[in-house]
Amino acid sequence: MALIDDTVAIILAAGKNKRMKTNLPKAMHKVGGVPMIGLIRDALDQIGVKRRVVTVGFGAEYITGYFGDWAEYAYQHDQKGTGHALLTALDYLGDYSGRVLVLYGDMPLIRPDTLTALIGQHMESGAQGTLAYADLRVQNEYGRIIRNAGGDFTKIVEMKDASEEEALITEVNIGLYCFDAAAARSALGRLTTDNAQGEMYLTDVFAEILAEGGRVGLYQVADDRECLGANDRAELAELNRALYRDKCAELMLESGVTIIDPDAVYIDRNVVVGMDTVIYPGCVIEGRTVIGENCEIGPNTRIRDSHIGDRTKVEYSVVQEASTGDDVSVGPFANLRPGTSIGGKSRIGDFVEIKNSVVGEDVRISHLAYIGDADVGSNVNIGCGAITCNYDGKQKHRTVIGANAFIGSNANLVAPVTVNENAYVASGSTVTFDVPDNALAIARERQVNIENWVLRKGLGRG
């Protein structure tokens, strides 16, 4: 599309927001599990903008590390306001005189169709600058759109500089613009810092364009929520709520997922959930998790960057960077740590922790066990209190348990060790040598009863 191919996107993300009280750039704070600036990247990718320039300053390393070579970077070493930030980006672009789409890095709800509509209107109107606005009839701190008696735009007044009458205006600047680069560069060159904050306001560019005899266009966004940003942690929480609600609606309406209480679950933007899965209250599902069909998730379960197979039940448990096959049961109160893979039809019960292990199909680890750095074959039973002792104080070692093996309760398998196929380990054993196929390992001292020992020691209780 020509209007997109000929447009450079500029994301302003150099400032340090004191109200956020953070060591991160504001735009790197997450909403819906994704940095705010990452959602803007997604919108730009969807409309096909090929050249992207990000102004960076405070915490530049976080933003450059996140985007990598997706963007070019204009460094604003001295933060002198939003106008100075845009001028920094235009200086980086040199003699470029085409269109620029300008966005703030903390506006994650901007929709791709809004961006294309704004650019299209800017082109069709012949304006040198076009700004998006919303009509908000609630208290807010956005700059007010000032019109003349004929209804034409004259300027933007920042809320801190607004009179009582201007503060009552409901049409507000949302911080999304399209400019002809040459006109913006010329107008920026005449800006002053004569305002409440002593900064170069980007919004003053429009009055300067008019003063030069240029035209300014206005575009009203379809959804008022698109103007939402985050200047503090409370506003960040509101953005998260909005995105979580949207994600729940998407899953229920488009994917056939049942969510018992959408206000009591937190599902990140990139999560995928299959049809007829039920999600109970208290669940946190994060990152790029994929959950299959006909599953039951929760209550009170956290799943992050994991893959859950079909017809699997996970309740009151934590699953992080792990995967399960189909027809698996996890929990209650299980912990599947990174690097864990559970085969189909397996049962991982209460207070079981598994880490960096491959567990085969139809395995039963029903309660109170720790399996770390292990390879477990199919149809294995691991009893209550059994553990793999994978750490010798210096390094980790692996345990191998063959198919159809039986590990008795309170057994300790001291790695590196192999329990071969069809072998049994007696309860209470500490196994330090490999166990052959079909063998029984008993590694415990023979029981000795000393008659009347309690009486001789004077320890009787009655």
Overall shape: elongated
User: For this structure, what is the CATH homologous superfamily of the largest domain?
Assistant: Spore Coat Polysaccharide Biosynthesis Protein SpsA, Chain A
In the CATH scheme, what's the topology name of the largest domain? Spore Coat Polysaccharide Biosynthesis Protein SpsA, Chain A
The span between the termini is 93 Å
Which percent range fits the helix content? 10-25%
Radius of gyration: 31 Å
**What is the CATH class of the largest domain?**
Alpha Beta
Number of strand segments: 39
Please give a handful of descriptors for the protein shown.
Spore Coat Polysaccharide Biosynthesis Protein SpsA, Chain A, UDP N-Acetylglucosamine Acyltransferase, domain 1, 16-stranded parallel β-sheet, 462 residues, elongated
Structure description:
The protein has 462 residues and is of the alpha/beta class. The protein has 3 domains: 226 residues, Spore Coat Polysaccharide Biosynthesis Protein SpsA, Chain A (Alpha-Beta Complex), CATH 3.90.550; 62 residues, Hexapeptide repeat proteins (UDP N-Acetylglucosamine Acyltransferase, domain 1); 140 residues, 3 Solenoid (UDP N-Acetylglucosamine Acyltransferase, domain 1), CATH 2.160.10.10. It is built from 10 helices and 39 strands. It has a 16-stranded parallel sheet that branches. A 7-stranded mixed sheet has the order 5-4-1-6-10-7-11, with helices on both faces. Strand 8 and strand 9 form a beta hairpin. The protein is elongated and about 105 Å long. The mean pLDDT is 93.
